[in-house]
Specification:
Elements (H helix, E strand, L loop, with lengths): L1 H14 L1 E2 L4 H18 L4 E6 L2 E7 L6 H16 L3 H11 L20 E6 L3 E9 L3 H18 L1
Parallel strand pairs: 1-4
Antiparallel strand pairs: 2-3, 2-5, 4-5
Helix pairs in contact: 1-4, 2-5
Amino acid sequence: MSRERIAELEAEHEELVFASFDQGDAWRLGRAITEAAISAGRGVAVDIRRPGFVLFRSALGGTTPDQETWIAAKARTVFRMECSSALIAERFSDAGIDAASIGWLPFPEYALTGGSVPIRVKDVGVVGAVTASGLSSDDDHAIVVAGLREMLAAL
């Protein structure tokens, strides 16, 4: 299953690329993900950031201050590896590597779990990370990907 999941996540990585992305786009994307979570009755925190600068943040009922730790760690993973935190987690799992136990990508600085996806701009690269926390790893990832796909389809 892991190889299939890796292929799926790699395809998402290639698919989810913007022509441009600015602070207004961050607000629209964050709002769309938050509204989808509200409609589904899901308690999640949503964060969109550039390194050192939060562009959007929401925290719905059911989230806790612990989500801040997870959001920051997932986003750091994206900025360091330039792909989704879910893809990195699957690659390490498939290779049988526990990165934290060997001192590489240790928690709480990094989180090898789904929920953060890079915001990539064509011919530029990673310009931000959109992260969800509060659901399962797979559901955090899925809600972010759905929001990115919706926004890209509307462009």
